[in-house]
Design a protein that fits this description.
Blueprint lengths: L5 E11 L3 H12 L6 E8 L5 H11 L4 E6 L4 H11 L2 E6 L5 E2 L3 H11 L5 E10 L4 E3 L28 E3 H7 L9 H11 L4 E13 L12 H21 L6 H19 L3 H14 L5 H13 L1 H10 L1 H5 L17
Parallel strand pairs: 1-2, 1-4, 2-3, 6-9
Antiparallel strand pairs: 4-8, 5-9, 6-7, 6-8
Helix pairs in contact: 1-2, 6-7, 7-8, 7-9, 8-9, 8-11, 10-11
């Protein structure tokens, strides 16, 4: 990874897989930015439809701005990392191929970072829209709140979306390579910035949109063994980052996180992921404020019956376990959302 960059340039990195129509709209939202200079790096992640041809056509139409990489399918993290490897900008914008940027996003966030040289990431309000552009929620998640750091809220949910922040290139270099998982890899990436305690600067304007649509979306294609494994790895990564960042172990966010880790231990166990289930249960116990009889009971069951049988039994008893996910004082939701 080269350390030099072009001062002032914003590099937008867009991974795409089998999503030609939405990709065109996402690229247009970058081209419509009021800010210059920009470059757009589109990474075709082994598409099997006409997406590759669409990507090449976009480059022909805008050769001065758009660069293209064609890879074998490896997931969004690997694709973003390939784009990061050739990015030349002082600032990095990650953008999923189905989401949109508002026209002044770069202008507002670059200015914010220049006015606050102590900050490494600028973020602003994100709205949730449907396939027709109708606003469903604004602000979406916690993007309307001013936060100085990603933790502790990042332990409860990924409170922004991939397109929400604008990153200094130097921060991305400190974080290092993108995780390779296909579920939660963006959350793990954010946790690495959180572990470094990178200061944030908030732009109190709408800068981006997340689209809820009917086309293929990895995070909405059902739960599976592979996804359970990825989420269990995410839980462990979040715990490591929180420990490095010295998050208050008594804060309500980490107590909710403890219950979530316990849930993912049971889920991973039901799929037979012994190592991941054990790791999540260890995290749950470490972050629990007080002794938890259910955690101890499940741990004993796993030693006697094995994780797969234990996980399946817990699945039948889920109404009993799930009550512990509700935190009435904080109002946290039962489970984090993956968008």
């Amino acid at each position: 990874m080269k350390s030099d960059y072009q001062t002032g340039l914003v590099s937008a990195i867009i991974p795409v897989y089998n999503r030609p129509r939405l990709l065109i709209e996402s690229v247009k939202s970058v081209l419509a930015q009021s800010y210059r200079p920009i470059e757009i790096i589109i990474v075709d992640d082994g598409s099997t439809d006409d997406t590759g041809a669409v990507v090449d056509n976009l480059q022909r139409e805008h050769p001065e701005v758009i660069r293209v990489l064609h890879l074998e399918n490896g997931g969004p993290g690997r694709a973003r990392e390939a784009g990061r490897g050739i990015a030349q900008g002082e600032f990095i914008q990650y953008l999923d191929s189905d989401d949109l940027l508002l026209p002044r996003k770069f202008e507002l966030q670059v200015n914010a970072l220049r006015e606050h040289p102590e900050c490494g990431i600028a973020y602003g309000i994100t709205r949730l829209i449907d396939a027709d552009g109708k606003v469903l929620q604004e602000p979406y998640k916690l993007t309307g709140q001013k936060m100085n750091y990603l933790f502790p809220a990042l332990l409860v949910e990924r409170w922004w979306n991939t397109q929400t922040p604008l990153w200094r290139r130097t921060v991305c270099d400190r974080i290092g390579p993108w995780p390779q998982g296909k579920m939660g890899e963006d959350w793990v990436y954010d946790s690495k910035a959180a572990a470094l305690r990178v200061p944030l600067v908030f732009v109190p304007e709408v800068v981006a949109a997340t689209r809820r649509h009917g086309e293929g979306r990895l995070t909405r294609s059902g739960f599976s063994s592979d996804k359970s494994k990825d989420i269990a790895c995410l839980v462990v990564a979040l715990h490591e980052a929180a420990s490095q960042s010295k998050v208050d172990p008594l804060c309500p966010e980490i107590q909710h996180f403890s219950r979530w880790a316990f849930l993912e231990a049971r889920r991973a166990g039901s799929f037979g992921h012994i190592q991941e289930a054990s790791a999540c249960l260890a995290v749950a116990k470490k972050t629990a404020h007080t002794f938890d009889l259910k955690m101890t009971f499940v741990g004993c069951m796993a030693k006697v019956l094995g994780w797969k049988i234990t996980g399946n039994i817990c699945g039948l008893m889920e109404p009993v376990f799930s009550r512990s996910m509700v935190n009435k004082k904080s109002g946290f939701s039962r489970l984090p959302e993956f968008e």
